[in-house]
Fold:
Amino acid sequence: MAQRYDVEVPADVGVIGTALAEQLPDLTTAMTTALEEQIPELPQDRMTGALLARSVESNLRAASALYRGELELGALAAPAEAREYARRLAQRGVSVTALVRAYRLGQHLHLTWSVEELVRENPDPKRALAAVRALLRLNFVYIDTISEQVIAEYQAERERWLSHRSTVRAETLERILAGEAVDGSAAEAALGTRLHQQHLGAVLWTASGHDTPGYLPHLESAAGRLGHALGAVGSPVFWAKDRASAWVWFPLGRKTTADAVAAAAALDQRTTPRVHAALGAPARGLAGFRYTHEDALQAFRLATSGSGEPPPLVSYTDPGVRAAALLAADLPRTRRLVTTSLGGLAARTESAARLRETLLALLQERGSLGAAADRLHVHKNTVKYRVARAVAQRGRPLEDDRLDLELALVAAHWLGDAVLPEG
Structure:
């Protein structure tokens, strides 16, 4: 609560109040224009600009009444128009700093004009100085009281608006993901994105688990970096699912592809906590908004199905990921496929896992020993040696049921112990 002051108002200050009332339209226009020009954060649309002008006018009118002795200090209250403008800024997400700057700049402009008026009306320097001092004290009390009230109004409205928008956004997302019919315009307003464009769904999470508080800012920061790396054309739709995971949609405009390599580079694994991402495939429209999210969820489940550290980024656009997602839908049949296709390579040992990874890299690189070596960061001869051992442990040549072999290797890579035989 601002401190209240007793200020003796000389009669000369009343002259300023009268002049202010007489010149109110011109002063309102000049001050509104200056605020819009010097504070670019303030919205420039017609409706909000008109509301700013009404806020300025109401404050000048109240100051005029105060200077003329028609308004007591104890009765000072922010005008309704000023409160409404503060609420509008809160709803638009404009920083409270811009609101504070508006009052400081407005005070400067008003005092500059007022002092010039006082000096012109009072040729006696001592009398003019006394009037200026009283005006400064009175104006300070006014700005101190009113700015405190409008900032409190802004903060209360911001909390209400965020809570409301969060609720509306969550309800809208739940309906879209459930496949229910939604009004497109209302949904776009709630989500802050155009739905008739390509979106890329993602799941972001921290490897430390879902019970650690304070990690949402890290996820939001990671979403921003990913959006930049992916070439998003606007802010992502961010939906926190708990304290350490979130569902995200990146607007891509007309782009139908996403650079997973660039996205992976945007995730700095040296930070704490480490943020991981599972991406869907870009899709268009309302149905695509749901499909890309479902793809991202599939990729997320695969990335977190094993017992080891998940990769920094996994994308559903990876053919191996899509295949593994399908294989995960019927685990009993997939276990049989793994057992029959891999033979001794299906063992739950580090040695068998290394041979499986080498063989999978070779198959995915279309039999190129050099390309497989580059992918695995080993020497070409190492790949050749491991492949020979893998063939021996499998008990069959690579060409024998090659498609089943590659599917089994994919399943073992992504699903791990869930599809490997025990013992």
